[in-house]
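Tutorial, part two.
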Amino acid sequence: MGNSHNKIKVAVGLSGGVDSSVAAALLVEQGYDVFGLTMEIYDGSVLIEEGIKHACYGPGEEDDVAMASSVCKSLKIPYHTVDLKAEYRSHVLDYFRSEYLLGRTPNPCVRCNQELKFGFMLDRAREAGLVFDYFATGHYARIDEVDGHFYLKKAVDLSKDQTYFIHGLSPEQLSRCLFPLGDFKKPEVRKIAASLDLETAHRIESQDFVSGGDYSILFNDSDQKPGDIVDQKGELLGKHEGIIHYTIGQRRGLGIASSQPLYVIKIDAAKNQIVVSEKSDIFADGLIATDCQMNPGLKPKFPFQAMVKIRLTHTETEAQIDKLENGRLKMMFDTPQMSVTPGQSVVLYHDDRVVGGGIIEKPI
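Running the prediction step on this input gives:
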């Protein structure tokens, strides 16, 4: 047990899962002065049945808090919760709904990390009188410091890397963050949890934003207006039950008889239409991204080449990045990519370092 860090206070964001518990345990072992912190976001306004697979937003939150509290007891560290129900409603749920109703497919996890976990939660904790030097989480990511500049780097366990979710953290935020799991593989983390007898060692992973993955329960009936499914020429092929049920690239559940498989290539909110076409039409040569932030330590000279990730499960692809006006970027892929989805985050990498990111405005 080292005690070199015993004057440094660290708040650890606890979700009630194995990763954040082990992050807390490692910091305690390294001699930091640690306490646990959980944000409470579920206000019961949306009636959700908790599924077998656990979710971020839902009534299972009570179990999470109980589990996080119990982990803190076994680690002999203090535990606090922060009420962010109102902030979650306005910054994540309302954003999610409004984006979907505009025909875009948002990423609530990116938004929640940016605005709540690394934002409001820490502000509210400090307002409540909690003092800490660093904030740590169980994210699989690493932080690099070069010549006083802070960069986000991919985790050693690339299959678990979570830099996509937290790519928007500023260098200032990174300078005050710790990611203790960045150098570990997931099986090692489970092993550490078991060796410490942490209750979370065998807990099922949180999989979804909403229990069961059915987002439609977040919408009112008036948001779910039936409309037309059309081809690119505007010919009527079928009916849909509301644009919120569709995403770009979707093939299943369209309910259209066709000799070729059809895919959603566009969600036209203004006309309340779903546009479908054959597979060859869901490939794009590039994209325009908006709300782009680049790591200021890099001072990129446009145009430049980077690896681009257009959704969490996407294998990065090489692209040329060019600057447009108003914080927008144009990215042209070396090879066309499938299902470029407006509303999703796009993250730029150079080797294993995050260069920047933004939100996909449209494919080109």
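The mean pLDDT is 92. In part three we will examine how such features are distributed along the chain.
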